[in-house]
Amino acid sequence: MRPFIFNQFDDKVTVVCTHLIPSLSDVTTPEVAMKPFFASLVEQSRSEITTIVETFKNVRPLLLLGDFNVNGGPLVPGKAVGEDQYRRLSKLFNTQVTSNCTFCAADQNVYNLNSYDVPTVIDHIFGNGMGIRNVKRVFTPDEVSIPNNGERVPLSDHFGVMGDAVCSPGARRVAPRPGRMGNKGRKRIQQ
Hints:
Layout: E1 5-9, E2 13-19, H1 41-56, E3 62-67, H2 83-92, E4 94-95, E5 123-128, E6 130-138, E7 146-148, E8 151-153, E9 160-167, H3 182-190
Parallel strand pairs: 2-3
Antiparallel strand pairs: 1-2, 3-5, 4-5, 6-9, 7-8
C-alpha cells in the first residue's frame, strides 16, 4: 500500500500528502504487488482510506491533501468514483470542493483521451482542527504547461488544487500515532 507521507510544519501543523489507488469498480484486479492482499481496486482503495482515517482522525491541527481518487464533485448517478469513501472522509475532516474538475475529459486535458468520460474532482484538501476555504483548481494549461511537438500541454493528467487553511480557535496540537503501520512503517516514512 502507498497511503501517505507526513511531517510537522513549523512544529505546529501535521501535513499529510497522499496518492491513493483509484476506486474503479470496473477494474477488478488490484496493483500487482497487492494481489495477495486485495481482491479488487475498490477493496484496496477502502483499505488505504481506512489507514489514513485511523492514523489521522485524532490529529490536530492537520492538513490532509493529495490525489484521493474519490469523487467529491457534482456527482453523476452511477458514475461517481468512490463516492462512499469521499463521504466517509468529508464526515471526519473539513473540506471544500473546487467547482472545476481536477481529472477532466480530453477537451480540457489531452492526457485523458481514453480515460473516464465524466469530469471528476478527485484531488482534495481536508483539515482537522483547521477550516479549508477558497479552494480552486490550479496548474491548468493556461497557467502552467510544457512544450510538446509545438503544442502546450498540461503538467499531468490531473490539475492541482489550492486553498486557504485556517486554524480553528482552541485547536491544540495532537501528534500522529503510527496506527496500523506500526513502528517499522513509521520509521520508513520519516527517513
